[in-house]
Specification:
Two copies of one chain form a homodimer. Chain A is of the alpha/beta class and 401 residues long. Chain A folds into two domains: 144 residues, Aspartate Aminotransferase, domain 1; 219 residues, Type I PLP-dependent aspartate aminotransferase-like (Major domain) (Aspartate Aminotransferase, domain 2, 3-Layer(aba) Sandwich), CATH 3.40.640. Helix content of chain A is 41%, strand content 13%. In chain A, the strands form three sheets. Chain A has a seven-stranded mixed beta sheet with strand order 2-8-7-6-5-3-4, sandwiched between helices. The first copy, chain A, is globular and about 60 Å long. The two termini of chain A are 41 Å apart. The mean pLDDT of chain A is 95. The interface between A and B is large, with 74 and 74 residues.
Chain lengths: 401, 401
């Protein structure tokens, strides 16, 4: 029986093996500290819950227009005005089933078989797989601390070719938490647009930035109305299981996006859309700010603790809820390290391998989606674990690109 | 700027034009009777609403495993046992964001660029477009009353070729409401599997059958464990806006489906999954049976009324909530007829053009997702409308296939 070629190219996540192993340990009565998962530990904000309850109670949970509830599209347009001072017509905003739906819609619109998409390595592993869904070719560009683990024009110029459809960038990024410098972002947009390509800017961690206030990471929309901007209610807004995201489309793609969305989604979940409307109230934004400050405290605590133990953090994570740490002082193979760490200490983390192929054996991703007290316990266990191990034969960090 | 080739091939729905026109009329104060929409008019069943409220109140709406909540997969397995006497391991059941997600997952697993999928014409218009999403080629097979508007082995044999990946079939079907004979279904499964292809059986209207009881339409699972069976909580279970469906995968596709679902969906909406668990209670099934009987009453009323006016119904609709009626006695162009009908009488229906290209100008699809009183008013207006029009020059119905 035939199966599509693309399926061979879609890689599984190593972290799923970790999760399965962690669950097996939990069934044996072991207490596992979960630092492998990219999901906020906070519940859905109360006002959002209440909006959902009020709506669902009436039972009228019907389809919405494919592009989403007009009120929600307007509310998102107002969000851009409020936080970025940018005017985005609501007609350009498409509500999707999660940011996953947004990536599907965007790449489905742009990518032909064999078309290439440049991606930073390390990066969110689904990007490559979404590219494979449409039979495109991910072009993984090694990045390191010299560019804060971001793409820039120099790196992109080295790989750009006639088969390039465009690039996917993320800021704050997963797994590093790095935020792209505004001028680097502008440079990338200018370069790609000059070469008739598209930029998909994944901004799902916007708002979760740990400077004085949130929303200082630049949006691609500030520099260009030709970018496709992906966002989500999952991370900053704390609504993972509600499966709701959006894409800001350039004008020229609206009509095609309408047709594609009608067919592949019908519409995003209606109750989630109505609930999400409550996200933008002052009271809810205060709650989200409180959470942001907690994340910041955790990040500081975790970074300090990891460095004290001997991990190297090569670019300070400025956003999202991850620390990408170099463990090469302790192991030449971070995937093995992860399995040993889990088996011996009950700490689950994600190995570098899940985020790319370049030097991935050096790295681990720690999520700080758990309270400081648990992070403290985790750090203690990790410290005892590495002290029991012989130090690794040092790995030399060659020039990456 | 480049846009993917597939986008040119994805057709818009004519019914969207009708909807926009209908809304414009409503803004002018006209009362529109909506017979164009494929969405039950009933609210979400009360027990499902209550289950959702209880779950959402706690605010813990987190991701589920990609294949879905284990309890829901088990409940669906029990549903197959109960209604069909078939044992399906829960591991083969994938919970998806609507049946749309199920079609995306299934065709993404199977279809390579240039691969062909045979489809009945008329049929659900998204099938062709889903095939185009993966750069496949829909092979539209004209069907008519001689096969109750279904594919059968003779029709399929005529078009089968080396590029065929498989077929998508639906029973009860949209737009005709036709149910496939069990032996025809078995024949198709045998033929396609013998030729190393896949059968995707869309069973989203299962349960909405208007014999003595529901669930007499045969499921493809009865004859083969190699079929991919798509289903949904939208139609029989009355949960459209909740965006929840499922696919029963053959054993050999489970591993690939896991990888693809992890990437393209993360997971289906969690609150919808928990709510859907309440669908299978006795009390809810009684409510759904009450609704089924109302649909049956409406169907009988509408069919009788349309035939009295002079529409021909070439295959009695046995399920779903549509009547596909031949309007060639009144018009040589059903799309024009639809626009005139809406403008003059405020009745919105879907033209044949939305369901295929073969003789589509003869047909209209009427939905009976509204109470008998409104159907009666609609029929009166339609009767007055056709009486004002000159009869059309008769169209000869040539041999279709």
């Amino acid at each position: 029986m035939r199966i599509a070629e693309r399926i061979r190219e879609i890689s599984p996540f190593f972290v799923m093996k970790i999760l399965a192993e962690a669950k097996a340990l939990e069934r044996q009565g072991r207490r596992v500290i979960h630092m492998e998962i990219g999901e906020p530990d906070f519940p859905t904000p109360q006002l959002v819950v209440e909006a959902a309850l009020a709506f669902i109670r009436a039972g009228e949970v019907k389809y919405t227009p494919s592009a989403g509830l007009p009120e929600l599209r307007e509310a998102i347009a107002a969000h851009y005005e409020r936080h970025y001072g940018i005017q985005v017509p609501a007609e350009r905003i498409f509500i999707t089933p999660g940011a996953s739906g947004g990536l599907l819609l965007s790449l489905g619109l742009l990518l032909d078989k064999g078309g290439q998409i440049a991606l930073a390595d390390p990066g969110y592993p689904c990007y490559s797989n979404f590219v494979r869904v449409f039979d495109g070719i991910p072009c993984l560009v090694p990045v390191n601390e010299t560019t804060a683990f971001n793409l820039d024009v120099d790196l992109l110029r080295n790989v750009w070719n006639d088969r390039m459809t465009g690039i996917v960038i993320a800021s704050p990024a997963n797994p590093t938490g790095a935020i792209m410098d505004p001028q680097v972002l502008k440079g990338l947009l200018d370069y790609v647009h000059k070469h008739a390509g598209y930029v998909i800017s994944d901004e799902v961690y916007h708002g979760l930035e740990y400077g004085e206030c949130g929303f200082h990471a630049p949006t691609a929309l500030k520099f260009s109305s030709r970018a496709l901007v992906i966002n989500s209610f999952s991370k900053y807004f704390g609504m993972t299981g509600w499966r709701l995201g959006w894409v800001v489309m350039p004008e020229e793609l609206i009509e095609g996006a309408e047709r594609l969305a009608q067919n592949i989604f019908i519409s995003a979940p209606t109750h989630s859309q109505v609930a999400a409307l409550a996200s933008f109230s002052e009271e809810n934004l205060c709650e989200l700010e409180r959470r942001r400050l907690l994340f910041r405290e955790r990040r500081d605590f975790l970074c300090q603790g990891l460095e004290k133990i001997g991990f190297s953090i090569r670019a300070k994570p400025e956003g999202a809820f991850y620390v990408f740490a170099d463990c090469s002082r302790f192991s030449r193979n971070s995937s093995e390290f992860v399995m040993d760490l889990l088996a011996e200490t009950g700490i689950a983390v994600a190995p570098g391998l899940d985020f790319g192929i370049h030097h991935s054996e050096r790295y681990l991703r720690f999520s700080y989606t758990l309270p400081v007290a648990e992070l403290a316990e985790g750090l203690e266990r990790i410290e005892a674990f590495v002290q029991r191990r012989a130090p690794a034969v040092p790995l030399k960090l060659e020039k990456l690109c």
